[in-house]
Request: fold
Amino acid sequence: MNNFKKINLTNEARQELHDQLGLTGAEISVNSLPAGTSIPFVHSHKQNEEIYAILEGEGSVVIDGENICIKAGDWVRISPSAKRQFFASKQSKLKYICIQVKANSLEGYTMTDAIVL
Amino acid sequence: MNNFKKINLTNEARQELHDQLGLTGAEISVNSLPAGTSIPFVHSHKQNEEIYAILEGEGSVVIDGENICIKAGDWVRISPSAKRQFFASKQSKLKYICIQVKANSLEGYTMTDAIVL
Reply:
């Protein structure tokens, strides 16, 4: 496998990056929910922590029955077992990144994992 | 630990999210390099794969001596051992997300890890 891979995301459709980038430690998707729509199901995870970055628009996420407002600039961590469903507001689309990683898999990071040359 | 955590990033300074969000499978930083500047060192990693999402602006990244142009909408995976350094262009800042995950840590994902309720 090459030491790096670059792609460009040019459209609004849902993109899943695991295979496109050759990821081994995460799955990442870039998503855009049109105004007034939602993910059509509630889901949780077996092993994976999810981290959501809201890039554009606003909406809400229901987590274990609690309704949380979200807007551009927000980041949300959700534990594997939590039941979640995302909604765009009636007025705007909701564009967001979803990062899936195995919970408790990170060991060192930044200054304990980096080698400065 | 709560089943979720939400934060809002309101300014341009570098933000490291591991502690703010209580992450256990990743470290994520949001960064903005002013026009004409660069990360002041070359680095690699011991264990961690890095994934970069370019949010705004343009610039370049040198990976193992190869110069790669980057702009908003680009995503780049970099293997742990690759030597890397990021530069903003002279004309624009470079705003990007950096996601650190342990290489080869992901097991199932999406349909093999999700539980649809």
